[in-house]
């Protein structure tokens, strides 16, 4: 599905922090490039751990803007000068900035706003001003968008319930997670003594060290598992809660068997060599790390949080689902997984999370080709000018 006379599509983020949404946008950009699309990655500020992962074929544009207003004005200038066919933005307030910039620029660029979280849960942990502003902005400004996209069906329903937006105005496109080189990256050498032959099995957690990921529950569950059998725990990621998590590890006397390794450029060798991958999140949008672990063949245990895990695991068919915040249930799931035969995940099931599948759906939404049969039941208006532009 290569596009004739390739146009330009822009991706917009405030920065490239080390989270899953930023990685998803980079993956999407790579997928678009593979289809012959010219891609601009626009950042409010060219900062973040993922910055070094920007593909060389992607044009990086640094707006060098710290505030909302300066972001809006800088993006407005870009839209006037470049007038891309489409712009895909992710997260607050990048979505709102993109919509305001299009209004000011008065260009025909199709703006697609994407929600990567379950908004009602995410707002519980934010400031009072954001709890007020974000629902107001979403309700009043998202209708300006040419497309509203969420990363799971549950997140889409949550967005509709929380804001009053019509459910049929929101489309779900699963994240482009599984790329052609993921398994190759997983086989790269790993220099860590805990993965040497004869060592105890390793339980792995990956994510930003913050409230959403609820690593305290994982650490407490690990403490219970460790009372029954010899195991170790590795947590990959950076974030503000690291001191509190290290204090909890010390309190539970787990220092010898728990390692915080910080942000890792390539986490896949850790995933592929771990005995169990655990997602302990209190809420999500569509947790990419859960999909990545499944793709490299690692058994998974996850909280049944809103939203994503139940959709990814087909309601528990492909891994244990346990209640949020329940360390005993999480420990039980880990022990059962260690002792059981790993559940086989069919490649046909994982196909929906591939880079190719997601890229095709984004091109459909932007009007480059006719919708596939599987996505005709959830369509957004598209630009007729570019319909049927695919081979």
Describe the structure.
With 391 residues, this protein is α/β, with parallel strands linked by helices. The chain has two domains: 8-176 and 354-386, 3-Layer(aba) Sandwich (Rossmann fold); 182-348, Rossmann fold (3-Layer(aba) Sandwich), CATH 3.40.50. It is built from 15 helices and 13 strands. It has helices at 20-34, 68-82, 94-105, 119-122, 128-141, 153-163, 182-186, 215-228, 242-251, 268-273, 288-295, 309-312, 327-339, 347-350, 355-365, and strands at residues 8-13, 38-43, 59-62, 86-90, 110-115, 147-150, 170-172, 202-206, 232-236, 258-262, 276-279, 300-303, 320-322. The chain has a seven-stranded parallel sheet, sandwiched between helices. The chain has a six-stranded parallel sheet with strand order 10-9-8-11-12-13, sandwiched between helices. α9 (242-251) links the parallel β9 and β10 (258-262). α2 crosses α3 (94-105) and α8 (215-228) packs across α13. Mean pLDDT is 91; it is low at 379-391.
């Amino acid at each position: 599905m290569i596009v004739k006379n390739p146009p330009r599509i822009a991706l917009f983020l405030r920065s490239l922090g080390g989270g899953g949404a930023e990685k998803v946008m980079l993956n999407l950009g790579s997928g678009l490039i593979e289809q012959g699309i010219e891609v601009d990655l626009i950042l409010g500020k060219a900062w973040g751990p993922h910055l070094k992962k920007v593909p060389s074929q992607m044009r990086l544009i640094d707006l060098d803007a710290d505030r909302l207003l300066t972001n809006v004005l800088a993006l407005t200038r870009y839209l006037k000068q470049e007038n891309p066919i489409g712009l895909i933005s992710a997260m607050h307030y990048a979505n709102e900035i993109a919509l305001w910039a299009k209004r000011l620029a008065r260009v025909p660029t199709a703006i697609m706003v994407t929600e990567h979280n379950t908004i009602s849960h995410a707002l519980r942990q934010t400031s009072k001003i954001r709890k007020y502003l974000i629902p107001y902005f979403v309700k009043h400004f998202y209708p300006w968008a040419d497309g509203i996209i969420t990363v799971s069906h549950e997140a889409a329903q949550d967005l509709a319930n929380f804001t009053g937006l019509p459910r049929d105005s929101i489309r779900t496109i699963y994240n482009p997670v599984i790329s052609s080189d993921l398994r190759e990256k997983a086989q790269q050498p790993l220099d860590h003594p805990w993965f040497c032959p004869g060592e105890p099995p390793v339980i792995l957690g990956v994510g930003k060290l913050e409230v959403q990921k609820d690593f305290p529950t994982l650490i407490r569950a690990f403490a219970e598992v460790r009372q029954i059998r010899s195991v170790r725990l590795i947590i990959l990621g950076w974030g503000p809660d690291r001191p509190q998590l290290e204090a909890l590890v010390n309190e539970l006397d787990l220092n010898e068997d728990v390692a915080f390794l910080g942000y890792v450029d390539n986490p896949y060798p850790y995933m592929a060599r771990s005995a169990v991958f655990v997602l302990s999140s209190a809420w999500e949008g569509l947790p990419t790390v859960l999909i990545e672990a499944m793709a490299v063949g690692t058994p998974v245990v996850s909280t049944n949080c809103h939203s994503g895990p139940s959709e990814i695991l087909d309601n528990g068919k492909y891994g244990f689902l346990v209640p949020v915040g329940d360390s005993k249930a999480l420990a039980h799931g880990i022990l059962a997984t260690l002792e059981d035969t790993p559940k086989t995940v069919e490649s046909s099931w994982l196909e929906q999370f591939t880079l190719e599948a997601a890229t095709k759906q984004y091109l459909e939404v932007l009007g480059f080709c006719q919708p596939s049969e599987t996505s005709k039941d959830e369509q957004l208006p598209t630009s007729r000018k570019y319909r049927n532009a695919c081979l």
